[in-house]
Amino acid sequence: MIAQDKANRDVIARRQAALDAAASAPQAGNEVLPLDHGPRATTTPWLNAQRRLHEREAAASAPVVHAMATPAPASAK
What pLDDT shows up at residue 70? Predict the structure, then answer.
C-alpha cells in the first residue's frame, strides 16, 4: 500500500513537471487565416505571409511572462 502511494506521487510529480514545461514553452501559432479570393479580396497570400512574419517577430521580442508567477511578498512591518 505504501509502495503504491509512493508510485502514485511519483507519477503525479512527473505529470505536473510535464505540464509546467509545456506551459512555459512558447506556443506555436496554428493560425487559420481567411481564404479570400476574387476581385475584391481583402487579403492576399503575400499579406498573410507578412502578418505571420510580424507576429513571429513580435512574439520573439516579447518578454516571457509566466502565467503562474507568484506576486512578490509584501514587506513585513
Answer: 54
What pLDDT does 72 receive? 57
Task: For 74, list phi and psi in degrees, rounded to 5.
Answer: -70, 145
All residues at 6 or more sequence positions from 33 whose CB lies less than 8 Å from its CB, including other chains: 43, 48, 51
Give the gyration radius of the chain's Cα atoms: 22
Pull the grid cell for residue 56.
Answer: 513571429
Q: Is this structure's pTM higher than 0.85? A: no
Q: Which of 4-8, 26-30, 72-76 has the lowest mean pLDDT?
A: 72-76
Q: Which residue type sits at 20? A: D
DSSP 62: S
Q: Give the DSSP letter of residue 33.
A: -
Here the cell at position 2 is 505504501
**Cα–Cα distance measured from residue 64 to residue 13, given in angstroms and rounded to the nearest whole number:** 24
